[in-house]
Amino acid sequence: MRDRPKIKDIAEKAGVSVATVSRALSDSALVTPETRQRIHDLARELNYRPNVSARNLRTRKSMAVLLVVRDVGNPFYLDVLKGVEATAREAGYAVLMGNTENDPLREIEYFNMLRDGHADGMILMTGKLPPEGGNRTGAWNHLPVVVALEMIEGSELPHVQVDNVGAAREAVEHLIGLGHRRIAHISGPVPEPMSVYRREGYRLAMREAGLDIPPGYEVRGNFLLEGGLECCRALFALPEPPTALFVANDEMAYGAAHELRRMGRDVPSEVSVVGFDDLYLSKAFYPPLTTVSQPRAEIGRTAMGLLLSILSGGRVEGGEPIVLPTALNIRGSTAPPCI
Question: What region holds the HTH lacI-type domain (predicted)?
Answer without folding.
Answer: 5-59
